[in-house]
Design goal:
heterotrimer; A alpha/beta (549); B alpha/beta (180); C alpha+beta (238); A: alpha/beta; Rossmann fold; 42% helix; globular; disordered C terminus; B: Rossmann fold; 6 helices; 31% helix; binds flavin mononucleotide; binds iron/sulfur cluster
């Protein structure tokens, strides 16, 4: 396989394409609302209408507006059908030839669609994720070819550096720097790991990429491996994602068959193999050192860094670990150039970010927007605000590690620094909208319960601290707490944040701290008066400072 | 000089702390010069008075009577001192807490192991019902100072009382705050 | 061996490259509180009691796993560190059922000693009172989960000094607990060699010799040191 072969596959794929395409979303969201049956009945209806030569019914990945699934799009007519039932198939097919259908149509001119910008999701909802030809027809694997044939590893790293790409797994570490560190390390065996653990409640961006465009990830990983000098890759994905896992398996098999993985990739002197490792769904196994321990068959608990994975990672070898979305950006950057990418987004946050929009919002689903887009644009325009005439009260980003921003901060642009300044984080991309019926102390308790349950138990502040934080929040909510308890809550947040071993504990207090910052009154309203000492009488005076208290 | 009003209270504990208090021996005479004991298991007074300056509180909050008492005491006392491990941590008194309710304890004490007329005593107003969970004093009301030890040795009690009476607060540290 | 010079609490200290801040401090006679650290086995940085401040680093660093660097300025005492240490101890005491008055290790317990040293005279958090079992199925030893602080010292000596790999940690978060083999009664273990190293390693009264009563449980850490020295330095301490 070389470039010529790639182009030939592409050409053939385009040549044999049928004039009309019905794209059926078969990512997990639409599958769970019966999308598979919709596709099958469309297949049948096309047969029955004798249009098989003209019409292709194609399974595709996520088409974004998950709340309206199952979704079916029609090319080239530019129609999006929503909430399609298997019974609708005949009328949809009839409508292709001038018939009528009552099936609900989506408004593709709605800001939900028009304000999106697709890089990571560029093929999502377009190509068939189970056919490598479909990916190659969308210029797939050309970036890998460019890298292998035309660029030295260092040039690839420079391009990633220049693009300004930062990690999408949460922390926002500059990707190029990480690559450069791994590349620099001595060591005969290096590894590339794709972190597809995605444990945040409410987040499904990475899953969508895996289900909709798995080859993009493989291509990104191969480019990364070439750049850092690795020959072995692992994808660590949670067992709760069976569809993603099966599509990844398919993709790896196809890529190997096409000489795009394995030895002598694209006829270059480059070997790269990818294996899948399935995690049991512990949130902490998304933390890089715990993840590596888990791959090695150890208990999935984090260890202190340094040494960082780049220095001493999987099986003690230098290891590059990146998030799914981070790696999915790579082929586009290599293909379209670092400057193109660097031209999108804000000064310090380049490119786009995918968010899983959920909660009390009219349009829930997947959005990809340029960095710097305001929360208001996302929530009010794209998401169309809270349903049933309710008011948006707060937006939560970063999941259990993030914070709640009040409606008054909706003009905040989504970029790493702005969110952090307000006590939240970009996180991996969960965005949960809350309306005025939401009690913010309850929200804090919800996330604390999550962290408490997911703490690995290795270090004291997180293991025992989250339990006590949860107990204190619970006490406040049961109206049994006093000002003493609130003070203790704040002191404990400070401890857990600054002394925990890994990011789970270090960020666990964030939902409490941010709700305390913006919604303190909701806490104060729940406090009870303390039974105090009587007013001063006689001696002894109580000393100002209590040396042991 | 006016003597300080001083009280000692015995809640859910074994009275070992009070025994240790009595171990202060002749210093008790000095203490009597500095304080007026207005309430204590060792004097005869039925009701906890108002305006107590300093109170040593032994034992954990184990039953409904303790719970009421401790709130009343807090409201009438300037400086409240948790006296001994049961007051400070729950200690032995709280060892039943992992059972979650009082029921298994009563069952074992009054039914399973009784030779004669097994029955759980119930007399409202006379036998206070047990709380399901035994609590250290400061989980119920704010406590000013802590005097750990099971029991706190007499020396430790003296050190603390001296400082508190002198208006210095608690300066206990080192071995003087060892539990157990 | 290259030497690094640094300051700990303002005191100039020299240390060998590769040494940890904890080792350098100990050599210089400066004490840093520790709990999960045990001489002779690898460190895990889990208890977080040994956290220190290092100039120019915004995070606190665990002294037991942080290597010395040239011109490092370490502070082991500050109001903030004291506050944190005390609170970590409070969390540990509240987490399980530590009833010092009736414990085999009363008076010789590292947890109790730490509380004394850090001025912890009461626990502000609500005690959890979890229901835990005592395993006395082993012929010679007992394990009282009520007193375990999950330092994992027993696990590490069992794996890395004895090589039996009998002890392990199971469960997550507050449910984490020390298990024997695949979570079976200690007495039924086929891998346990009854060497007693885990009992020697335990900082609290969680692991004890059967037959010891309140405050009777004495440990002899030199027995561990003996083996570690023999192994690492090929010397037999007499
Ligand atoms: C508790 C915890 C959970 C994490 N979960 C994930 C995850 O699910 N996916 C992910 O990519 N990164 C996760 N991370 C971040 C990873 O440790 C790591 O920083 C990331 O994979 C690096 O990739 P990036 O540089 O591309 O962002 C998690 C971190 C912590 C502390
Ligand atoms: S912070 Fe929590 S999850 Fe991380 S090591 Fe500590 S206990 Fe485990
Ligand atoms: S049993 Fe002892 S040595 Fe083992 S983890 Fe518990 S406290 Fe540590
Ligand atoms: S001794 Fe360093 S973290 Fe426990």
């Amino acid at each position: 396989m070389d470039l010529a072969d790639l182009l030939e596959i592409k050409e053939k794929e385009l040549r044999t394409r049928k004039p009309i395409r019905l794209r059926c979303c078969l990512a997990a969201g639409c599958v769970s609302s019966n999308g598979q049956a919709v596709k099958e009945s469309l297949d049948k209806a096309v047969q029955e209408a004798g249009l098989a030569d003209e019409v292709e019914v194609r399974q595709v990945g996520c088409m974004r507006l998950c709340c309206e699934g199952p979704l079916v799009a029609v090319d080239p007519a530019g129609i999006l059908y929503q909430k399609v039932a298997p019974e609708d198939a005949a009328s949809i097919v009839a409508a292709l030839k001038g018939g009528e259908t009552q099936v609900k149509r989506g408004d593709l001119n709605h800001p939900f669609f028009t304000k999106q910008m697709s890089i990571v999701l560029e093929n999502s909802g377009e190509i068939d994720p189970e056919r490598i030809e479909s990916y190659i027809a969308a210029d797939g694997y050309q970036a890998l070819n460019d890298a292998l044939v035309e660029m030295k590893p260092k040039e690839v790293i420079d391009a990633i550096l220049q693009s300004g790409l930062r990690g999408r797994g949460g922390a926002g570490y500059p990707t190029g720097l990480k690559w450069a560190t791994v590349a620099k390390m001595q060591g005969s065996k290096k590894y590339v790991i794709c972190n597809a653990d995605e444990g945040d409640p409410g987040a499904f961006m990475d899953r969508s990429v895996l289900e909709s465009d798995p080859h993009r990830l493989l291509e990104g990983m191969a480019i990364a491996a070439y750049a850092v000098g690795a020959d072995q890759g692992f994808i660590y994905v949670r067992a709760e994602y069976p569809l993603a896992i099966s599509r990844l398996h398919t993709a790896i098999k196809q890529a190997k068959q096409h000489g795009l993985l394995g030895s002598g990739v694209l006829e270059a002197a480059f070997t790269f193999n990818v294996e899948i490792r399935i995690g049991a769904g512990a949130f902490v196994c998304g933390e890089e050192t715990a993840l590596m321990a888990s791959i090695e068959g150890e208990r999935g608990t984090p260890r202190p860094r340094p040494p960082f994975p780049a220095e001493r990672g999987l099986y003690a070898g230098p290891t590059l670990i990146n998030n799914v979305e981070t790696l999915a950006n790579v082929p586009s950057i290599v293909r379209k150039g670092a400057d193109w990418f660097a031209g999108i987004g804000t000064e310090k946050s380049k490119g786009t970010k995918v968010f899983a929009l959920a909660g009390k919002i009219t349009n829930t689903g997947l959005i990809e927007v340029p960095m710097g887009t305001s929360l208001r644009t996302i929530v009010e325009e794209m998401g169309a605000g809270a349903p049933d005439g309710n008011q948006v009260k707060a937006v939560q980003t970063g999941g259990p590690s993030g914070g709640c921003l009040p409606a008054s901060q909706l003009d905040t642009p989504v970029d790493y620094e702005s969110l952090q300044q307000l006590g939240s984080i970009m996180g991996s991309g969960g965005m949960i909208v809350m309306d005025q019926t939401t009690n913010m102390v309850d929200v804090a308790r919800f996330f604390m319960e999550f962290c408490m349950d997911e703490s690995c138990g290795k270090c004291t502040p997180c293991r025992a601290g989250t339990v006590q934080l949860h107990a204190l929040l619970d006490r406040i909510l049961r109206r049994q707490a006093t000002a003493r308890d609130l003070e203790l809550l704040e002191e404990l947040c400070d401890l857990v944040k600054h002394t925990s071993l890994c990011g789970l504990g270090q960020t666990a207090p964030n939902p409490v701290l941010s709700t305390l910052r913006f919604f303190r009154n909701e806490y104060l309203e729940l406090l009870q008066p303390e039974i105090g000492a009587p007013a001063a009488f006689g001696t002894p005076p109580k000393p100002d400072v209590n040396p042991t208290g | 000089m006016d003597r300080l009003t001083f009280a000692t209270v015995w809640l859910g504990g074994c009275s070992g702390c009070h025994m240790s208090f009595l171990d202060l021996d002749e210093w008790l005479v000095d203490l009597a010069d500095m304080v007026e004991i207005v309430y204590s298991p060792i004097i005869d007074r039925k009701e906890y008075p108002e305006n107590v300056a300093v109170c040593l509180i032994e034992g954990a909050v184990a039953n409904e009577d303790n719970l009421e008492q401790v709130k009343l005491i807090r409201a009438r006392t300037r400086l409240l001192i948790s006296f001994g491990d049961c007051a400070v941590t729950g200690n032995v008194t709280a060892m039943r807490n992992p059972l979650r309710t009082a029921e298994p304890v009563l069952q074992r004490a009054y039914l399973d192991t009784a030779n004669l007329r097994p029955r759980i005593p119930q007399a409202r107003g006379i036998v206070p019902p047990l709380l399901d969970q035994v609590l250290p004093v400061h989980e119920v009301v704010p406590v000013d100072y802590f005097l750990p030890g099971c029991p706190p040795p007499a020396d430790r009690i003296r050190t603390l009382l001296r400082d508190v009476i002198a208006g210095k607060g608690s300066l206990l540290s080192g071995e003087n705050i060892r539990f157990g | 061996m290259p030497v690094k010079t640094l300051t700990i609490d303002g005191k100039p200290v020299s240390a060998v490259e590769g040494q940890t801040v904890l080792e350098a401090a100990q050599d210089a006679g400066i004490s840093i509180p520790t709990l999960c650290h045990l001489d002779g086995v690898s460190d895990v940085g889990a208890c977080r009691l040994c956290l220190v401040e290092v100039a120019g680093v915004s995070r606190l660093l665990p002294a037991c796993v942080t290597k010395v660097t040239e011109e490092m300025e370490v502070r082991t005492e500050s109001e903030r560190l004291k506050r944190y240490r005390r609170m970590i101890l409070e969390l540990l005491f509240a987490e399980r059922n530590h009833v010092c008055a009736v414990c085999v290790s009363n008076g010789r317990c590292e947890l109790q000693n730490l509380a004394v040293a850090q001025g912890m005279d009461h626990v502000r958090f609500a005690y959890r009172f979890p229901p835990y079992e005592v395993d006395i199925t082993h012929r010679m030893f007992g394990m009282d989960h009520n007193r375990c602080v999950l330092c994992s010292r027993c696990v590490r000596v069992c794996w890395f000094i004895e090589g039996a790999a009998t002890k392990n940690v199971a469960g997550r978060g507050a449910d984490a607990r020390i298990i024997t083999d695949l979570s079976q009664p200690w007495g039924e273990s086929e891998t346990c060699t009854s060497c007693g190293k885990c009992v020697q390693a335990c900082p609290t009264g969680a692991k004890f010799h059967k037959g010891s009563t309140v405050a009777e449980m004495e440990r002899d850490r030199s027995r561990l040191e003996y083996i570690v020295t023999a192994r690492e330095k090929k010397q037999w301490i007499v």
